[in-house]
Amino acid sequence: MGQQLFVDYHFHPNFRFGRREGRRAGRIWNAFTQHDLGVVVVSEHNWKRPRESFELLAGHRPPDARTVLLPGAEVLTREGLDIVVFGSDPAWYHDRHASGLLQPYRMSVEETVDFVSSRDGMAAFLPHPFTRGTTGAVDFYGEKLAATLAGRIGGVEVSNNCYDDCLKMVGRLCSRVLPETHRRMSLTQSITEEFLDLAGAGFFAHGSDAHFPGELGYGCLMDVTAPPLDPGHAFQLMTSHLGRESHARGCEKSAWLRAWHVSKSMLITLAEAMEKRSIRKNLRHSPTAAKLLEDLAPA
What pTM was computed for the model? Predict the structure, then answer.
């Protein structure tokens, strides 16, 4: 008889690497168990030490934990676009040719896609294409070219839960005052069939995009014959999934807890935006999207 496997493609441990990180790791593992997460991609931003984040979390794994961790990173490309890469073996973190993936604004979109496609046991997907700002592919390239890019990358995030609390709190007001922003937030949570038809992606990702344990509990259910016992098996399942339906687990949040989580998430997002801006200013890289635009443009 088959079983259902609950997975999260997009998670940020958000470690600060201080003395209390063992406690934070413990809270994260407790949340994995609470939501019965079978597989989680540890996809820390590439300017926030993704390799060390994966190793720290894996190093605090409880003896009875059943969640399989896959090593990943949310790569901030030279153009400023986000692409999530992940693999079955954390050895990719130590590949000298992959060093550019672990540094912001180092590898272009094209270089990132070429590198991942040349490595066995590695995959990538386009996260939250409709989110506002340059890290969202639709703002960067337009919807048709963004969908084409998703197809080239191999996967696309059909659902990202980063706006869930905000939409539930002020969604109705936002739809009246900022209709386009509300539309983009809604499309980030559930992408259109038209976009997927254009993309023709090889697999569909569903992510909580959680930056703290309270945001965990969102992903997708896969029908499996048995839970994966090793990262290799988990990777195969994750990179062949074409399910459209997302799933949330856990009790409904109270109004005050939802408000606290929205405030906490906004502070984290603001801090990340300021950090990215500072990194970009120091590196003084100019966008290099021209060649990719030319490659993606229809004949």
Answer: 0.93
- What does the pLDDT look like over 100-117, one tens digit per residue? 999 999 999 999 999 999
Q: Which tokens go with 57?
A: 């979390």
Q: Who contacts 67 (Cβ-Cβ below 8 Å, separation ≥6)?
A: 29, 32, 33, 37, 38, 39, 40
CB atoms within 10 A of CB 132: 14
Is 42 within 8 Å of 57 (Cβ atoms)?
yes
What stretches of 143-254 show up as alpha helix (H) in DSSP? 143-153, 164-177, 179-189, 193-199, 231-238
The answer to whether residues 159 and 101 touch, using CB atoms and an 8 Å cutoff, is no
pLDDT digits (tens, 9 = 90+) for 21-56: 999 999 999 999 999 999 999 999 999 999 999 999
| The token pair that represents 236 in the structure block | 């195969």
Residue type, 167: L
Q: Domain 3-296, CATH 3.40.630.30 — does that match?
A: no
Task: Show Cβ contacts of residue 84 under 8 Å, excluding neighbours closer than 6 positions.
Answer: 9, 10, 41, 43, 72, 73, 74, 75, 124, 125, 126, 127, 157, 205, 207
